[in-house]
Amino acid sequence: MKTLVRRTAVPAIQIGLLVALLGAWQLAVDGKSISVFFFGSPSGTWRELYEWIRRGTVQGPLWQQAWVTLQETLIGFGVGVVLGVLLGLLLGRIPFLARVFTVYIGTLNSIPRIVLGSVFIIWFGLGMASKVALAVVLVFFSVFFNAFQGARDVDQKLIANARVLGARRHSVLLHVVLPSAFSWIIASLRVAFGLAITGAVVGEILGATQGLGLLIEQSQGNFDPDGVYAGLVVTTLLAVVAEGLITLLERRLLRWKPRRRSASLPTT
Question: If you average pLDDT over every residue of the chain, what do you get?
Answer without folding.
Answer: 83
